[in-house]
Design a protein that fits this description.
Layout: H1 2-20, E1 46-47, H2 57-72, H3 76-88, E2 91-92, H4 94-106, H5 110-123, H6 128-137, H7 152-161, H8 166-189, H9 193-225, E3 229-232, E4 236-240, E5 249-254, E6 258-265, E7 268-272, E8 278-282, E9 286-288
Antiparallel strand pairs: 1-2, 3-6, 3-9, 4-5, 6-7, 7-8
């Protein structure tokens, strides 16, 4: 168990350093009267969990720089195509999705803009520009719902886990793991009772914190690998009572609406909106975050 936990943590730490040196901020936030900038990239992308086309780093950097140049020239849809080519290569980053959100917004694709900003925040919850732009673009959504109240404990736990990306939680877990080992060594080999007690107490506290941080890292990892939320991309979608065109029409959702994704049945997806209503839509009408 210890060996498996250590391997998992170290593997996630490696991606932390890739993300930490992934790019330099260039652009500004969205504003009704101002343009939006992009993030230039001079590091490495994170790998996605899906198989991609085989491209070397030079080709990927070339695609990214070409996309940025197209964006700066006002060719937003071609820029999006180049950004998508980077995604298809099996690489991703928060800054990449942020740029894609900006390009999608300039292409008048509100649904895709919201989707990409959400993806950026999923990888990097502290991305302030993505937060600001998501709030700004969300004003253009047609659907407004009154959220069903949730239990305080569940809401608090969710908010706590989302404080940091999985890499940060993994680093914290590793730190507490090392403290556990240090405390254990002091407890086993020290001849002084005071040091034995200190080692035992510090190790015990670190164990609790290790479980919390490791659980948070695993939860964040599951969110990325198995997303349970999505964004409506079609202009309008009829939500039906059953996974069939003959199902009763329950209500209509519009582009940019965020949904919770449940089970899938033969190209139909069961979804739930924040006001508690549920139904079925076609899988091609939305994309997972």
């Amino acid at each position: 168990m210890i060996r498996a936990s250590t391997f998992f943590i170290l593997s996630l730490i490696w991606t932390t350093f890739l993300q930490a040196y992934g790019g330099d901020q260039l652009g500004n936030k969205l504003d009704p009267d101002d343009g939006i900038g992009i993030d230039l990239f001079d590091g490495e992308f994170l790998r996605t969990d899906q198989a991609g086309i085989n491209l070397d780093i030079a080709d990927i950097d070339s695609l990214y720089l070409k996309a940025n140049l197209l964006y700066q020239e006002g060719q937003y849809e071609p820029a999006l195509e180049q950004y998508n080519a980077v995604i298809l290569s099996g690489k991703e980053s928060a800054d990449l999705y942020y740029n894609m959100g900006n390009a999608a917004y300039r292409s008048n694709s509100i649904g895709h803009a919201i989707l990409y900003y959400e993806k950026a925040l999923k990888l990097e919850p502290t991305h302030e520009d993505a937060k600001h732009n998501l709030d700004f673009v969300s004003r253009y959504r047609l659907d407004t719902f009154e959220e069903v109240p949730v239990l305080f404990l569940g809401s608090w736990i969710t908010g706590f886990v989302q404080l940091f990306p999985e890499q940060t939680w993994s680093i914290l877990a590793l730190i507490f793991f090392m403290i556990i080992l240090s405390g254990l060594m002091v407890y086993l080999f020290s001849t002084r009772m005071v040091l034995k007690k200190s080692g035992f107490i510090s190790g015990l506290v670190a164990l609790v914190l290790f479980v919390i941080t490791l659980s948070s890292a695993l939860s964040r990892h599951r969110d990325i690998v198995n997303p349970d939320t999505g964004i409506i991309l079609a202009p309008s979608v009829v939500v039906r009572s059953s996974p069939s065109e003959s199902g009763t029409e329950l209500f209509i959702l519009h582009e940019g609406t965020k949904i919770k994704v449940n089970e899938e049945v033969s190209s139909w997806q069961n979804i739930k909106v924040i006001d508690g209503r549920e139904g079925w839509i076609r899988t091609y009408d939305f994309e997972s975050i």
